[in-house]
Amino acid sequence: MEANGGVVKEKKRTINGPTNPMVTPLLTDLYQFTMAYAYWKAAKHNDRAVFDLYFRRNPFGGEYTVFAGLEECIRFIANFKLSKDEIAFVRECLSPTCEDGFFDYLGGIDCSDVEVYAIAEGSVVFPKVPLMRIEGPVAVVQLLETPFVNLINFASLVTTNAARHRFVAGKSKLLLEFGLRRAQGPDGGVGASRYCYMGGFDATSNCAAGKLFGIPLRGTHSHAFVSSFTGPDEITEKSLKSHDGSRECKDFVSLTQTWLGKLKRLSSSEGVFGETNQSELAAFVSYALAFPNNFLALVDTYDVMRSGVPNFCAVALALNDLGYKAKGIRLDSGDLAYLSCETRNFFHTVEKEFKVPGFGKTNITASNDLNEETLDALNKQGHEVDSFGIGTNLVTCFAQPALGCVFKLVEINNQPRIKLSEDVSKVSIPCKKRSFRLYGKEGYALVDIMSGENEPPPKAGQRILCRHPFNESKRAYVVPQRVEELMKCYWPGSADKAREELPTLEQIRGHCMKQLEQMRTDHMRRLNPTPYKVSVSTKLYEFIHFLWLNEAPVGELQ
To answer: Which residues cross the membrane (predicted)?
Structure first.
């Protein structure tokens, strides 16, 4: 995939089109166009509307979410324009009674009169707090609803999933995203690689994502490569120059066999292994000859401890003789905790007996359908894995398929609007709002609070009453040590306002890591996390309930 060709010049810099060329004005639901026509027919299409994009519940049974997808939304509206072909298609889809003037109107609209305010991408966010506020002509903003929700939903879900895996694995472990082959199509695969990196993963196996986004790539070989060899006789080119180029080993295969013999004698008293699989050894030697600086072997094709690990060590020690350092092994099956510990012990024995500094710390990578639960179990059992390759459960978000973002009208022509429901969680919070995060003495976030746009903002050191939006008895005073306003302008349209520059992927990733560090661990833990508090100001609380009573019909008993 390549970014599409359209660009719009803005005051600060040119904004490219969406990464995925399928993201066009037609990437929407039909009812957005039927509503647009009805607005136009009623001469309401230019009414100034304010919509909030938010979600109602954190995913994966957790108590936090990571916001992602903002850049793609800004790329989309910066280049929003219906082509003649697209308008012709819309005409075919709508009723033949629709007037020609509406299609002329569609041909002239763009997002120059739209304003977008949002929380910074990569931020930790919570239910009910608007991730984005979109202001503009109601018909135009409605056409943005479906693509915006689509671009935010999956991106935020995958980024959150990655952040959760990072939290369980710990900061010191290398996390590799291996999910492309199991992802939901090409777009799901490329998008997942991007947002897993944003959420804390270190690298991907996805070459397309590496090219598009500059994500570091990792990968070695599969079981097929190992089983494709039948023995050392297949290796015809056996020579290998030393790392510094000063000498050449004419027969690297024999050097490896020599080391394997030494390893057998070393381990004979312990009964670790006897004869290893020679076809596996041939595969390892062949791969080492191809990539002497990046030799990492998949060791579970036949038997990890009786063949794979000894064969790897023989090749690694032969490489060491020539000044190279092997990268490590990958375990893709079996009892990962036990096998990693046994492998680490073997590495330490090799380091001690053959006096090879650092060999005991050789990298051990584990894969094989890993998820949060298996990472947590490995931690409890004790393991020696340095890197985790995670695929299916990560990129497909197997534990929860959707985040559930919504896009609700909260104000039109300066008149606040509310959406009511018998399910209180579905009641919207009306009017144009500002959002703030209040931090405590230890630097951790305490509570998010929403207030009306014209209310004075909360200040550090000031005693603030924070109220639950709907539950009268849930309230608390907070004296924040620091106050952070969450929403900033990312698209001012034609308004003369400063616009936040879109950060790079690396900057967003760094921001995400910093945000996660500012959350208390009890909010982040996998089991029974402490709910994070989301509140409203007293004035906004009173207004919500005033409007609720004003809009709810009064029943009549007979």
So the answer is: none
